[in-house]
Specification:
Blueprint (H helix, E strand, L loop, with lengths): L8 H5 L18 E3 L9 E5 L1 H7 L3 H5 L1 H7 L11 E3 L4 E2 L2 E2 L8 E8 L5 E7 L14 E2 H17 L5 E14 L8 E12 L5 H9 L3 H15 L7 H26 L1 E2 L21 E2 L24 H16 L6 H28 L6 H16 L4 H10 L17 H24 L4 H11 L7 H12 L4 H10 L34
Antiparallel strand pairs: 1-3, 2-9, 4-5, 6-7, 7-10, 8-10, 9-10, 11-12
The protein binds adenosine monophosphate (AMP) and magnesium ion (MG).
The site of magnesium ion (MG) has 3 residues, from loops.
Length: 520
């Protein structure tokens, strides 16, 4: 077995828990605890990302080998792996939750790839840790399939995200009460090997700050800047301020991508916000079918809808403001420096939103009036129950001067509404046609721009659920097929049209398709 090159800076340079093992405890003065994965019965690698494997220098034969199944299932360690669980806190649904930590994720170490890039490998569902808080440290197959597929789908869509190397079924069962309604069931267990340059979250900084452990906070900040933001060439408070501003900027770019492709994270707690601006922790996420800014897939949040689609840019700002509060003790005069960072968020988001508007409409620049054009379109899409992905993709294919919706009929979920809103769409299309006529781009250029911004294929909730249903019967081919489609989301893929269809009627109220709980 070829060895990966490990360079475990996080645990070598930062203070850890004096106690080892998984006894549940409050961990003070330390940023992680050393703990090993708990072995599983019969690990089998059922899917992997060929791009991630290639990046790490792993061959297909290796990933197929029983030896690697043992490693990716948590039964064996490769030379250089030093497993640990990270200690962090977080604001959950707006409320400070104190210590959370990796309750079921265990990091194996940091790999350096052939180009010197750093990749932390982390097993999600690898067994109990000091942060498991009475839970089992495991993950079920359905949620592992969702995380595996979505990480890779997002990557191919061009959205900053953590990645997934492999999906392992463990041969063990895991008991979950999927809807918290007193009906626990045994489900197949699974483990995803997640990969990212860093899994550090806002909550890693919030916890030492909340405990008044400013030395520990400063050590983590210095470490994060040195390892993950080496390009920042400042010192002292200006360095901290610029770093925070960069976190703000990256977060803005990430959320703007979510809004472009119709992704709803579902649980934007501060422990689920990456310090690198990566989409992290795929739980009860979902994709917009009919355009609805008020939609959330998360049944746990169905009442307040804190994390609904249209709210995501504001929530990200609020989360950054929690991070700013945590960092404040590092500044003599914190307010102006941190406010500058938050302002950077607003500026970066505004800019990204304008770029999205232009790209999604195929325009070479975004005028102020184009924002209005987009707002009006959004209102129409919501009122008329129109599929976001199909509409924008289709808009790029039609000749706006024709002012006819005929080629977009498939995007409508309700015929009566389509007929009702036809005149409104016709007048919107007339405005759009006039705007396109003023744009210097040729028709082909407009189309190209739109094809690059408006995916044909997204990981619709019902598609993931179909793959899950097949996998639950022991057929993992559906996962692999779906991954293949999602590798080229902007290409038309002849023969795969059915993966681009709007949500079928059967999926409207089916568990896993429109409603998901945090139980995973
Ligand atoms: P999440 O909602 O997935 O972001 O998880 C919130 C917190 O609960 C994190 O600290 C997780 O590690 C922990 N957690 C979630 N599920 C489990 C589980 N099955 N076993 C142990 N800890 C868990
Ligand atoms: Mg989490």
């Amino acid at each position: 077995m070829r060895s990966l090159r490990f360079d475990n800076r996080f645990i070598h340079e930062l203070p850890g828990d004096a106690e080892q093992g998984s006894r549940v405890r409050q961990v003070l003065g330390a940023l992680y605890s050393r703990v090993e994965p708990t072995p599983v019965a019969a690990p089998e690698v059922v899917a992997w990302s060929r791009e991630m494997a290639a990046t790490l220098g792993l061959s297909e034969d290796e990933l197929r080998s029983p030896a690697y199944a043992e490693v990716l299932g948590g039964n064996a360690l490769l030379e250089g792996m030093q497993p640990y669980a990270a200690n962090y806190g977080g604001h959950q649904f707006g409320v400070w939750a104190d210590q959370l930590g990796d309750g079921r994720a265990i990091s194996l170490g940091e790999v350096l790839d052939g180009q010197g890039r750093r990749w932390e490998l982390q097993l999600k569902g690898a067994g109990p840790t000091p942060y498991s808080r009475g839970a089992d440290g495991r993950a079920v197959l359905r949620s592992s399939i969702r995380e595996f597929l979505c990480s890779e789908a997002m990557h191919h869509l061009g959205v900053p995200t953590t990645r997934a190397l492999s999906l392992v079924v463990t041969g063990d069962t895991v008991v979950r009460d999927m809807f918290y309604d007193g009906h626990p069931q045994a489900e197949p267990g699974a483990i995803v090997c997640r990969v990212a340059p860093s899994f550090i979250r806002f909550g890693n900084f919030e916890l030492p700050a909340a405990r008044g452990d400013i030395d520990l906070l400063r050590r983590l900040v210095d470490f994060t800047i040195a390892r993950d933001y080496p390009e920042l060439a400042l010192q002292g408070e200006p360095l901290y301020a610029e770093w925070f501003a960069q976190v703000c900027e990256r977060t803005a770019v990430m959320v703007a991508h979510w809004m472009r492709v119709g992704f709803v994270h579902g649980v934007m707690n501060t422990d689920n916000m990456s310090i690198l601006g990566l989409t992290i922790d795929y739980g009860p996420y979902g994709w917009i079918d009919n355009f609805d800014p008020d939609w959330t897939p998360n049944t746990t949040d169905a009442g307040r809808r804190r994390y609904r689609f249209g709210q995501q840019p504001n929530v990200a700002w609020w989360n950054l403001s929690r991070l700013a509060m945590a960092l404040a003790p590092l500044f003599a005069d914190a307010a102006p420096s941190l406010q500058a960072g938050l302002d950077r968020y607003v500026a970066a988001y505004t800019q990204a939103d304008r770029a999205n508007t232009a790209a999604k409409l195929g325009l070479s620049t975004c005028r102020d009036s184009d924002l209005e054009l987009m707002r009006d379109l959004h209102a129409l899409l919501a009122d008329a129950e129109v599929d976001m992905t199909l509409f924008f993709r289709g808009l790029g294919e039609l000749d706006p001067a024709e002012e006819s919706l005929a080629s977009l009929h498939d995007a409508f979920y309700d015929d009566a509404r389509r007929v009702q809103f036809e005149p409104a769409f016709a007048s919107w299309l007339a405005r759009y046609a006039a705007r396109v006529a003023e744009d210097p781009s040729a028709a082909a250029q407009r189309r190209e721009r739109m094809r690059a911004a408006n995916p044909r294929y997204v990981l619709r909730n019902y598609l993931a659920q179909e793959a899950i249903d097949r996998a639950t019967q022991g057929d993992y081919e559906g996962i692999r097929e779906l991954l293949e489609v999602m590798r080229r989301p902007y290409d038309d893929q002849p023969g795969r049209e059915h993966y681009a269809q709007r949500r079928p009627a059967w999926a409207i109220n089916k568990a896993g398709c429109s409603m998901l709980s945090c139980s995973s």
